Amino acid sequence: MTATVTRHSVIGPPNTASGRHGLSPVALFGSPHGFIFERYTCTGMRRTVSTEDAPAAVGAYSQAVATDDLVFTAGQIPLTPEDDLLDGAGMDVQTEQALENLTAVLEASGASTDDVLKVTVYMTDIGRFDTMDTVYETFFEGDPPARSAVGVAELPKGVDIEVEAIATTG
User: Fold this and answer.
1) Do 120 and 38 share a structural domain?
2) What's 124's DSSP letter?
3) Do 30 and 81 share a structural domain?
4) Which residues are registered as beta bridge partners of 149?
5) What's the domain count of the chain?
6) Per-residue pLDDT tens for 89-143?
7) CATH number at residue 137
8) Are residues 36 and 112 in the same domain?
9) How many other C-beta atoms can be found within 10 angstroms of the C-beta atom of residue 31?
């Protein structure tokens, strides 16, 4: 797929009979002398990101998908790259492994934790938020990204945490 950006502009005078521009007001950037209607269409290069430094996908999905300027990671769980599941470990250990996996996937995409815009953390026990947050802040120092923490009933493979991110590479 080829990356394309298309800009469509229409310039013209206002409709003098009604004083309106003749196009939907939502689509107009108007002035008393005319209007400009702009629409942008962008289709970026889509590529799959994969690394052996994080566990392989446990289903029909990719570790991450990237476009020219964004990376969308799959949820990372506390599974080591060697397939050791840390489901019985404490929240601190599970969080650290999930974030190490996330970091590896981001690096494979050309991004880093400094480039992360948004993180979503899924937890089976939101009461352990403080423990998760203590580990989390060591991965996102300085200017941390936006984040949501969501309490859920279950996660894949019986783990207690899953972390996904959206990052920029541009």
Assistant:
1) no
2) S
3) no
4) 121
5) 2
6) 999 999 999 999 999 999 999 999 999 999 999 999 999 999 999 999 999 988 9
7) 3.30.1330.40
8) no
9) 10
Q: Give yes or no: residues 51 and 87 share one domain.
A: yes
What pLDDT shows up at residue 49?
A: 96
Tokens for 110, please give them: 């050309």
* Residue 40 CA to its chain's centroid (Å): 22
The DSSP output letter for 140 is: S
SS3 40: strand
User: Which pLDDT value is given to residue 59?
Assistant: 87
**160, 152 contact by CB (below 8 A):** no
C-beta of residue 12 within 8 angstroms of C-beta of residue 35:
yes
Domain, as residue range, for 53: 47-168
Beta strands at 64-66 and 70-73: parallel, antiparallel or unpaired? antiparallel
Residue whose token pair is 């994969």: 50
98 torsion bin: left (phi>0), alpha (psi -120 to 50), beta (else): alpha
- Co-location of 119 and 140 in the same domain: yes
